[in-house]
Specification:
Blueprint (H helix, E strand, L loop, with lengths): L11 E3 L1 H13 L4 H8 L13 E2 H15 L4 H7 L7 H7 L4 H11 L7 E7 L3 E8 L7 H20 L7 E4 L17 E4 L4 E6 L12 H19 L3 H11 L7 H8 L3 H10 L4 H19 L4 H7 L5 H12 L3 H9 L11
Parallel strand pairs: 5-6
Antiparallel strand pairs: 1-2, 3-4, 4-7, 5-7
Helix pairs in contact: 1-3, 1-4, 2-3, 4-7, 5-6, 5-8, 9-12, 10-11, 12-15
């Protein structure tokens, strides 16, 4: 059992990308994200993809302060709807799958890379397909927020896959009907039933055969491989996370294997061997960190492309530009325009 710095049991709960989507939502409503982070005991450096999942005790405080600062009881729905698929390899694989059904199967299989304490299970019947979401531990007062977030994110994902809103979606919610006549969920879905045992998201089974509008076999393969590696990292303890964290801290200087191994107090041979035991390489990790943070800088900062290249350890902006196009099939400047315009993004979207 792990104990965090405040003496609480540490239970990894949510990927930093999910917390960042809540901060994006707060910012869009005129709330300073840094204030909410500080009150919750979090900092921006805790939310890099090279870090561990945010543990539940911190997440619980974060949600309480976020809802209070926004004054919006449906903040979870709004934040979930802002979680763009391209923000994680799970989302990228889902939207680049061959069909909606295969995308949802992938989501169900790898959901723990986003939520560490939730189980997703896809059941397909002759008429109705149901995605069931069940917490593996009590969520206490965050239950409504988390369930709302999943509904919002699911609606966003379906729209990215189908190229249109999924008006056929019906949900079952594991909490009571809100007071008053305003039911926030009905802004997003056709039908909502309250007081259910678990969250359920239902679609007509016939929709599962529809093709994804951004289907791309190569993009899917690359994203699926990344998910497999991340899953392997989760199963084999924290060593890969230590490497990712140390590399992220020094990414600007572009350290090689020997330099990073020295920082970790081990030999380069040991570093390579231990990474190989879980099926990843040093270059895999560096490439993944650069890819993720390049997109984040483009969307969330005004830094010139040349400065972003330097921040990611590229001495030559031209080399960064070529590498970026190999990741996303588009130039950095064009992706920034698309992201600022609120467009969905996946590797296939540039074609």
């Amino acid at each position: 059992m792990n104990i965090n710095a405040t003496g609480e049991v540490s239970l990894p709960f949510a990927h930093p990308v999910y917390v960042r989507s809540v901060l994006d939502c707060l910012n869009s409503r005129g709330v300073r994200p840094s204030t909410v982070l500080e009150r919750a005991g979090l900092a921006w450096h805790d939310l890099h993809d090279g870090k561990h999942m945010v543990d539940f005790a911190l997440f619980r405080r974060f949600v309480a302060h976020a809802v209070e600062a926004s004054g919006e009881p449906a903040l979870g729905l709004m934040a979930g709807s802002m979680l763009q698929p391209y923000h994680s390899p799970v989302g990228i694989a889902a939207v680049s799958s061959e069909t909606l059904g295969k995308g949802l199967q992938f989501l169900s299989r790898y959901s723990k890379l986003i939520f560490g304490s939730l189980e997703f299970h896809l059941e397909t019947g002759p008429r109705v397909s149901t995605l069931r979401v069940r917490p593996t531990r009590p969520l206490f007062e965050t239950l409504v927020f988390v369930m709302q977030s999943i509904v919002g994110a699911y609606c966003r994902l379906l729209e990215a896959i189908l190229g249109r809103p999924a008006d056929e979606l019906a949900v079952g919610l594991p909490y009571s009907h809100p007071d008053g006549t305003d039911v926030p969920c009905l802004r997003y879905v056709r039908r909502a039933v309250f007081g259910q045992e678990h969250l359920t998201l239902q679609l007509p089974s016939e929709l599962l055969h529809l093709p994804c509008v951004s289907a791309d076999a190569k993009v899917f393969f690359d994203a699926a491989q990344t998910c497999q590696k991340l899953e392997s990292e989760m199963r084999h303890g924290g060593f890969v996370q230590r490497v990712r964290g140390a590399l992220l801290d020094q990414l600007t200087t572009n350290p090689d294997v020997a330099e990073l191994a020295s920082c970790l107090g081990i030999s380069a041979r040991t570093l390579v061997r231990r990474l190989g035991e879980v099926g990843v390489t040093f270059s895999d990790i560096k490439d993944d960190l650069r890819k993720t943070h390049a997109a984040w800088y483009l969307q969330h900062t005004e830094l010139p492309v040349e400065t972003i290249a330097s921040q990611l350890g590229y001495a030559d902006p031209t080399s960064f530009g070529r590498k970026f196009k190999s990741w996303y099939q588009v130039a950095p400047s064009k992706m920034r325009q698309a992201l600022r315009g609120g467009l969905q993004w996946s590797g296939a979207a540039a074609r």
